[in-house]
UniProtKB/TrEMBL annotation:
GO terms under cellular component: plasma membrane
TRPM SLOG domain sequence ranges: 92-210, 265-358
Name recorded for this polypeptide: Transient receptor potential cation channel subfamily M member 3
Places the protein is found: Membrane
Organism: Myotis davidii (David's myotis)
Domain of life: Eukaryota
InterPro entries linked to this entry: TRPM (IPR050927), TRPM-like (IPR057366), TRPM_SLOG (IPR041491)
Length: 678
């Protein structure tokens, strides 16, 4: 009941309250409704204090407008919409709202009540409402690329919300994706209330309605935009959603460091990209409006889809540098516009002027041509357009690719000049990669010059330990981590964090005498930073990092022992069973890696391999690799030929304490008279 009251108090609908007869059909109002269906206006809309408003309504202007001739009422349609078709049944949430509803309120509804994850990207699809055929190959590439871009980046797809035109092709792509159950895609349809069929079935409070159409797709919250006009659709003002999304995400997490740091630093919020497929004359004004925004919204045009898209892509391809349209090209475009839209010269010149303005911002327009060199799919075109449209530095573009978890884009579009970056420019990216558990990005950053020994300072390492879902006002210190490690390792292991030398250093850094040491004081032992991966379950990330530091198998049994101990502790506690299984699996992975590395080093040099087995590891309380293997009960490692040869030498070495052991053995035989003593 409380949720219903909040929805009805917060969201409004629009109803046409004054009749402006249409010149084409006198039985209808300019809003598209039948005159007989008009509801009476509210008292405040018919009479004012001095009768001024009533007089105004008695002499209405000739042109109908939403703001002047509609009245706001509490919303009367929200609930669950069930999409049926293709053997699948999927539910989506919907609500009827006014065209001027604030994005903050809708965001609260979507995230808090509808349980949607906040997006890292907004994709707005524009095109014609009339049904049009699309080449089968182009339709397949378009659908797969759009869905893949949404899945990999966690994007929200905004459409017109109806089942015709380009939106039907989007719906087909979502339907195909849904049938294969490969991740959830969030598609939001914003449709004029007047264009919704059987809208009477949607009216009600928290109702459940069904639709045989696949207009939107799977698990898609449907927000119905009430324009009050049956003939016109509203352009989704996604630019107004960018900063509210960013601020909402920061309020939700209670953090001053947002998940999408690039938009926060540039003051842009969550990025937006426009996607144009086919389209009528209004598409040119939509594209121009996007390009004129501050900051501008990049646009991707799908060449070969027809009408407006083909005109824009043709102008983009043949215009001169700086977007200048030559006279021959202008004449050709003018004729094409007239034929495409059946326009006269005057109307065609207006559209041509809009095309020319768009070409002045040619750098923000990306044309996707199927089969063109350097363009693999629609997904890459969308993400590349966003990189061009952000007008950001290389580190900020890297932050954008990191938020999308697209290491391929970072490698091909950002690190194109090799590891020539400013000093410390990649440290923030490394910090974000560790927090977000981006394994491939950690590898890429190390390849391009990040020095982990300089990166892992004491304050930064402690910050990484405290980035999890901790209770409020709860802080984990490195000394706490040391005590936990000693408990998990057992035996005589003594962690570096609990030693007196480190405690003194730690107290000088964070205690009353904090000013005695600089905040960028670096930890001399690289491996203590890798404990973060052990405790957070980053087995594969730690796997790569250790190979980078060339420690071979000497430090593999520490994490194996830790994982095994944590698996035992989690199985004894009330944690989810999967956690214990994952930890045990990580322990086995490290053990298998140790055996493989031992076998490789043994084949390369037997003596060096045996020396490495007895090398004392300062980071592990001067324990040897063989001792850690025994503590971890790694039987395969101990049974290896190298380990057995070492144990044999150690055992036989007791009989070889002095020189010439062979002569001494013969002397003993001679002294004993060749007899066997019993």
């Amino acid at each position: 009941q409380g949720q219903k009251a909040w929805i009805e108090k917060t969201f409004c609908r629009r109803e046409c309250v004054f009749v402006v007869p249409s010149t084409k059909d006198p039985s209808r109002c300019c809003c598209g409704q039948l005159i007989a269906l008009h509801i009476p206006p509210l008292p405040s809309a018919t009479s004012g204090r001095n009768g001024e408003e009533s007089t105004e309504l008695e002499a209405p202007p000739e042109k109908w407008s939403v703001g002047r001739h509609t009245q706001a009422y509490p919303t009367d349609a929200y609930g669950t919409l069930e999409f049926q078709g293709g053997g699948y049944c999927n539910k989506a949430m919907y609500i009827r709202v006014s065209y001027d509803t604030k994005p903050d309120a809708l965001l609260h509804l979507m995230v808090k009540d509808w349980q949607l994850e906040l997006p890292k990207l907004l994709i707005s699809v524009h095109g014609g409402l009339q049904s049009f055929p699309m080449q089968p190959k182009l339709k397949q590439v378009f659908g797969k690329g759009l869905v893949k871009a949404a899945v990999t980046t966690g994007a929200w797809i905004f459409t017109g919300g109806v089942s015709t035109g380009v939106i039907s092709h989007v719906g087909d792509a979502l339907k195909d994706h849904s049938s294969k159950s490969r991740g959830r895609v969030c598609a939001i349809g914003i449709a004029p209330w007047g264009l919704v069929e059987n809208k009477e079935d949607l009216i009600g409070k928290d109702v459940s309605a069904s639709s045989p159409d696949w207009a939107i797709g799977r698990s898609s919250p449907l927000s119905l935009l009430d324009s009050g006009n049956l003939k016109k659709t509203q352009v989704c003002p996604l630019r107004s959603w960018r900063v509210p999304l960013q601020l909402y995400e920061m309020r939700k997490t209670g953090s001053h460091r947002p998940l999408f740091p690039l938009g926060h630093r540039l003051g842009q919020g969550v990025p937006v990209v426009g996607l144009v497929v086919e389209g009528g004359p209004n598409v040119f004004s939509i594209v121009l409006e996007y390009l004129r925004e501050e900051p501008p919204v990049p646009v991707v045009v799908c060449d070969g889809s027809g009408r407006a898209s083909d005109i824009l892509s043709f102008a983009h391809k043949y215009c001169e540098d700086g977007g200048v349209i030559s006279e021959p090209l202008r004449d050709q475009l003018l004729v094409t516009i007239q034929k495409t839209f059946n326009y006269g010269r005057t109307q065609a010149l207006q559209l041509l002027a809009a095309v020319a303005e768009c070409m002045k911002r040619k750098a923000l327009v990306t044309v996707f041509r199927m089969g063109a060199e350097g363009q693999q799919d629609m997904e890459m075109a969308i993400l590349t357009a966003l990189l061009k449209g952000t007008n950001a530095s290389a580190p900020d573009q890297l932050s954008l690719a990191l938020a999308w978890n697209r290491v391929d884009i970072a490698r091909s579009q950002i690190f194109v000049f090799g590891p020539h970056w400013p000093v410390n420019a990649l440290e923030q990216a490394m910090l974000d990669a560790l927090v977000l558990d981006r394994v491939d990005f950690v590898k890429l950053l190390i390849e391009n010059g990040v020095n982990m020994q300089h990166f892992l300072t004491i304050p930064r390492l402690e910050e990484l330990y405290n980035t999890g879902n901790l209770p409020p006002d709860y802080h984990i210190s490195l000394i706490d981590i040391g005590l936990v490690l000693e408990y998990l390792m057992g035996g005589a292991y003594r962690c570096h964090y609990t030693r007196k030398s480190f405690r003194t250093l730690y107290n000088n850094l964070f205690g009353p005498k904090r000013g005695n040491l600089p905040p960028d004081y670096h930890i001399s032992l690289i491996d203590i930073g890798l404990v973060l991966e052990y405790l957070m379950g980053g087995a594969y990330r730690c796997h790569y990092t250790r190979k980078s530091f060339r420690t071979l198998y000497n430090n593999l049994f520490g994490p194996k022992r830790l994982y095994k101990a944590m698996a035992h502790e989690s199985s004894e506690s009330e944690l989810v069973d999967d956690i214990s299984q994952d930890l045990d699996s990580n322990s086995k992975d490290f053990g298998q890696l140790a055996v493989e590395l031992l076998d490789q080093s043994y084949r390369h040099d037997e003596q060096v391999a045996m020396k490495l087995l007895t090398y004392e590891l300062k980071n592990w309380s001067n324990s040897t690799c063989l001792q850690l293997a025994v503590a971890a009960k790694h039987r395969d490692f101990i049974a290896h030929t190298c380990s057995q040869m070492l144990l044999t030498d150690m055992w036989m070495g007791r009989l070889r304490m002095r020189k010439n052991p062979g002569l001494k053995a013969r002397g003993m035989w001679w002294w004993g008279g060749g007899r066997v003593w019993t």
